[in-house]
Design a protein that fits this description.
This protein is an alpha+beta fold.
């Protein structure tokens, strides 16, 4: 007699799950619209020589950063974001690296950089900017990735990319706010 009750409860649970999923708005339509209309900022591309110089300064100071990269961290990088409140992010540069790197932050300005990561393989990710569309509730996170060996990662939706030269990839990630 227990079999029909179990069957009914399983069916009811599945039905409730399906209704829940059907009622959830994942925001894919809004994300897709922002993704489709996004163009990469020519001003960022024009500043590539400045980003090149910044990356050269970061890599030159790799030993200063390396001692802070922990093997047990899943990201395995030194992440620097001076305005961050995340306890896993460095808000100050190592003293030896600061004089080489700070001038590039000043020259680029807050509209063109808010942080960077340097990884064990000397690849560098520059956090360019985050913009939010109040209409679609979608964040667009723009980044530049520098790959010393040119091993680019092809981005898939909800990310898009463009290759700028043999070492640089400009890419953006699109996220709907308030989905979870």
């Amino acid at each position: 007699m227990l079999y029909p009750v179990r069957n009914f409860l399983s069916s009811l649970s599945l039905l409730l799950f399906l209704f829940t999923i059907a009622g959830c708005d994942t925001g894919e339509k809004e994300v897709r619209a922002e993704f489709d209309k996004h163009t990469f900022d020519q001003q960022v591309i024009d500043k590539l020589p400045l980003y090149d110089s910044l990356v050269a300064a970061i890599i030159k100071n790799f030993p200063s950063f390396q001692k802070f990269i922990r093997v047990e961290d899943s990201y395995r990088s030194f992440r620097y974001k001076p305005t961050s409140e995340d306890p896993d992010v460095f808000i100050k540069l190592p003293p030896a690296a600061e004089p080489d790197i700070d001038p590039y932050y000043t020259r680029l300005g807050k509209d063109f950089i808010y942080g960077f990561d340097i990884f064990k393989d000397s690849s560098v990710k520059i956090y360019v900017r985050n913009t939010f569309s109040s209409k679609s509730k979608v964040d667009t996170w723009e980044s530049l990735s520098y790959y010393p060996n040119g091993n680019f990662r092809k981005r898939q939706f909800p990310e898009k990319d463009t290759i700028l030269n043999k070492n640089w990839q400009y890419w953006a990630r699109f996220d709907k706010r308030g989905v979870f």
